[in-house]
């Protein structure tokens, strides 16, 4: 059931986003914010110094748009997502170097395995309420990195949410933005769902990364399809953070 942020099933510590993903299916890839994948991957390849043969973990990979694009460039990618519907879509379009599995980002099992970890577009980080999920996810991603490995993480900009996010309720005590929005499946059937987005300031991201043992290399202000190194501002919806696990 979408609508209960505290939903947890015995079966798999279910997440409120799963039924949203089940309804959306492949229609997720019709949303404009998914259309800039090639530019985003071009930018990430350069910034992360990725080369063929390196291994990347994509956390909250959704239908695999970044993972599959990276794999087409010769990078070995493993994508994880809590939505089986999205994992099935990712597998259906996967090139040979991309693999996927359904897994909860709050309990990542890897230690010092990946050259880079990416977590983009509220992929597990930021789809929450006021609990500690994001810290758990960040610590798991830090642990999955080899020493010297790099993290690329996007997070919603709290300043932007306050200034521009009309139609959403921003809770100043938690930094969570709540909106009721309509989503359509592939055949156009519309349902109303609640979405909760954890919003951040650069200072909070610095503090969270420090607690996870990561060193921030840079935080820039970006929007989907326009990843750049522009400094943090109030005017763009997301921050894109690059951090390193110390050697
Ligand atoms: C807005 S989508 C972003 C997907 C993808 N990264 C992209 O850029 O298109 C957020 C994704 O995070 C996944 N997600 C949310 N919480 C998660 C968790 N605890 N573990 C794994 N995946 C999670 C959702 O299922 C969804 O696919």
Architecture overview:
This protein has helices at 17-24, 37-48, 65-72, 84-92, 133-144, 158-164, 202-211, and strands at residues 55-59, 76-81, 98-102, 114-119, 145-157, 168-171, 176-184, 190-200, 215-222, 238-244. With 247 residues, the chain is an alpha/beta fold. It has a single domain (5-158, 200-244), classed as Rossmann fold (3-Layer(aba) Sandwich), CATH 3.40.50.150. Strands 1, 2, 3, 4, 5, 6, 7, 8, 9 and 10 form a ten-stranded mixed sheet that branches. Strand 7 and strand 8 form a beta hairpin. The longest helix has 12 residues, at 37-48. The chain is globular, with a radius of gyration of 17 Å. The protein binds S-adenosylmethionine (SAM). S-adenosylmethionine (SAM) is lined by residues 15, 17, 21, 34, 60-62, 65-66, 81-83, 86, 104-106, 120-124, 127.
List keywords for this structure.
alpha/beta; 247 residues; binds S-adenosylmethionine; single chain; globular; Rossmann fold; 10-stranded mixed sheet
Give the arrangement of secondary structure elements.
Elements: H1 17-24, H2 37-48, E1 55-59, H3 65-72, E2 76-81, H4 84-92, E3 98-102, E4 114-119, H5 133-144, E5 145-157, H6 158-164, E6 168-171, E7 176-184, E8 190-200, H7 202-211, E9 215-222, E10 238-244
Parallel strand pairs: 1-2, 1-4, 2-3, 4-5, 5-8
Antiparallel strand pairs: 5-10, 6-7, 7-8, 9-10
Helix pairs in contact: 2-3
The chain binds S-adenosylmethionine.
């Amino acid at each position: 059931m979408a609508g209960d942020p505290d939903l947890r099933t015995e079966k798999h510590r279910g997440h409120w986003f799963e039924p949203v993903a089940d309804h959306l299916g492949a229609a997720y890839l019709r949303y404009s914010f998914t259309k800039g994948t090639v530019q985003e991957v071009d930018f990430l390849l350069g910034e992360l110094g990725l080369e063929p043969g390196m291994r990347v973990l994509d956390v909250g990979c959704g239908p695999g748009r970044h993972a599959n694009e990276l794999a087409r460039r010769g990078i070995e990618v493993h994508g994880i997502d809590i939505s089986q519907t999205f994992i099935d879509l990712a597998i259906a379009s996967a090139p040979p170097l991309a693999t996927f599995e359904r897994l909860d980002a709050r309990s990542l099992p890897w230690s010092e395995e990946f050259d880079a970890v990416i977590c983009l577009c509220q992929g597990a980080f930021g789809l929450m309420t006021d609990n500690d999920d994001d810290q758990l996810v960040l610590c798991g991603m830090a642990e999955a990195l080899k020493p010297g490995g790099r993290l690329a993480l996007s997070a919603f900009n709290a300043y932007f949410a306050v200034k521009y996010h009309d139609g959403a309720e921003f809770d100043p005590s938690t930094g969570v933005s709540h909106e009721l929005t309509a989503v359509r499946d592939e055949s156009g059937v519309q349902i109303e769902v609640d979405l909760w987005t954890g919003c951040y300031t650069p200072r909070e991201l610095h503090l969270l990364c420090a607690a996870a043992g990561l060193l921030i290399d840079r935080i820039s202000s970006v929007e989907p399809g326009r990843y750049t190194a522009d400094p943090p501002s109030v005017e763009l919806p997301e921050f894109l953070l690059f951090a390193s696990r110390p050697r």
